[in-house]
Amino acid sequence: EDEPLWHEMLGQCSVESIRFRFRSMFRQMSHERASRFCFMDYDRELAMIAEITVEGKQQMIGAGHLYCDVDRTRAEYAVLVPDQWQRHGVGSLLTEACLDIAVDWGLHEVFGETDRFNSGMKATFKNAGFELQCPPGEDVVRARKILSADPALNRILPT
């Protein structure tokens, strides 16, 4: 049911924002690819959605995703916020909410990647306490946040 809102949100994103988030450019996302973002494997994935109501109509203004590894000790994090909502705190709120859930799940680490030119996402990562690394010769910045000292003490995700 979120897929139409997802497509509308993508339509509000610049080519640069799409490239920063997906590391590729496209004009329109297929149903098959969109369903990957709209239908979760709730044992290992989570999507946090930011919505507003404009003239009685729901509008998605951001989406944060956590994707846990098989061992449920680490999760990849990614966020997308349409251009008009960037630099208004939406990405930071989604990041904070996803990190809170990652802590509740007992994860050891959350990590992500962004383009080295994506100053907004780098600032979001940095403000949330991630360590950033940009390997020489690469266009990617790797972000990593340790949530607990000992992964063996982590709880299992609820099923």
From the N-terminal CA to the C-terminal CA, the straight-line distance is: 22 Å
Question: Please, how many helices?
Answer: 5
Note the run of SSEs as H and E. HHHEEEHEHEE
Main beta sheet strand tally, sense and closure: 6 strands, mixed
Strand percentage: 25-35%
- What is the overall pLDDT average? 83
The helix content, as a percent range, equals 25-40%
Shape: globular
Biggest sheet strand order reads 1-2-3-4-6-5
Write the layout of secondary structure elements.
Blueprint: H1 3-11, H2 15-22, H3 31-38, E1 45-54, E2 57-68, E3 74-80, H4 90-104, E4 109-115, H5 119-127, E5 131-133, E6 140-146
Parallel strand pairs: 3-4
Antiparallel strand pairs: 1-2, 2-3, 4-6, 5-6
Folded structure, characterized:
With 159 residues, this protein is of the alpha+beta class. 31% of the residues lie in helices and 29% in strands. The chain has 5 helices and 6 strands, in the order αααβββαβαββ. Strands 1-2-3-4-6-5 form a 6-stranded mixed beta sheet, with helices on both faces. It is globular, with a radius of gyration of 16 Å. Mean pLDDT is 83; it is low at 154-159.
